[in-house]
Amino acid sequence: VDFRSEGRHVCGWSSLSSPSSSSSSKSDCSPSITAKDIAQSNPLASASNTITATVTISCDLFTGSTVTISGLDATQTSDSATIPIVSSSNIFGSTADWKQGTGTLTVTAASPMSASTPYT
User: Fold this and answer.
1) What is the C-alpha separation between 54 and 113, in angstroms, rounded?
2) Are the C-beta atoms of 73 and 58 separated by less than 8 Å?
3) Average pLDDT estimate for 23-52
4) Is it the case that residue 81 has pLDDT exceeding 90?
5) Are 79 and 100 within 8 A, CB to CB?
6) Buried-most residue among 90, 97, 98, 116 (CB within 10 A)?
7) Could you report how far apart the first and last alpha carbons of the chain are, in Å?
8) Which of 119, 117, 115 is nearest to 28 (CA)?
9) Strand 2-6 to strand 9-10: parallel, antiparallel, or no bridges (unpaired)?
10) SS3 for 41?
11) 46-55 long-range contacts, CB within 8 A, separation 24+
């Protein structure tokens, strides 16, 4: 299983409000996952299963940024652009984009995400 983040991001800002181009505290960085964990509720084949993933990111990410979890292979869940999810503080909203063939789940930040904060 692999994780990656993409989107508008900055390091070193004191808040995630709309950035000012004249801000001297701004420093761009490449977003990365600094901590990750994934678990399942049921290891049995053909049984209902809840996957829980927790990620911590290196940079502040703005609303609309994405986090993709890949390597979720051999599932029976069909493709869905609106697969139901539950996320801490509703940070990723209530749905995600699931691709069965590639085993990828992409969630989109519904609000700004802070660096060094774990999100589930």
Assistant:
1) 13
2) no
3) 79
4) yes
5) yes
6) 98
7) 16
8) 115
9) unpaired
10) coil
11) 46/76, 52/120, 53/3, 53/120, 54/118, 54/119, 54/120, 55/3, 55/5, 55/118, 55/119
Q: Please report how many Cα atoms fall inside a 13 Å half-sphere around the Cα of residue 97, on the Cβ side.
A: 8
3-state secondary structure of 65: coil
What is the Cα–Cα distance from 91 to 94, expressed in whole angstroms? 9
Q: Which amino acid is at 73?
A: D
Q: In the predicted model, what is the mean pLDDT of residues 99-105?
A: 95
Number of residues that this document lists for the chain: 120
Token pair listed for 31: 């977003």
Q: In what order do the strands lie in the sheet with 104-108?
A: 2-6, 66-70, 104-108, 95-99, 80-84
Distance, in Å, from the CA atom of 107 to the CA atom of 95, rounded to the nearest integer, reads 8
Whether 54 and 118 have beta carbons less than 8 Å apart is answered as yes
Q: Residue 13 is which amino acid?
A: W
pLDDT at 30: 72
Contacts for 15 with CB less than 8 Å, ≥ 6 apart: none
Which position has the token pair 């390597």? Answer: 71
